[in-house]
């Protein structure tokens, strides 16, 4: 989750990232809190599931609240490197493939 937040902040330039979980899913609560997210509140009757309306607990993290761990500050740079690596053989920078004559 922390890696996804880093991708959102660094590579995509997002200001706010949010998530929602079931009130029954405590494992998700721990994961979201460990990633640095803050519990925002409860959306009542948010999802209709298994014949009943269910609440959701929402979390968010703002751009200035995200702090890198284990070198994740460079997530945007890493993603650029990955994109270059995944280019098809013979392709040009930017993903263009040369046309035959």
TrEMBL record:
SUPFAM superfamilies: Acyl-CoA N-acyltransferases (Nat) (SSF55729). InterPro entries: Acyl_CoA_acyltransferase, Ribosomal_N-acetyltransferase. This is N-acetyltransferase. PANTHER family: RIBOSOMAL-PROTEIN-SERINE ACETYLTRANSFERASE.
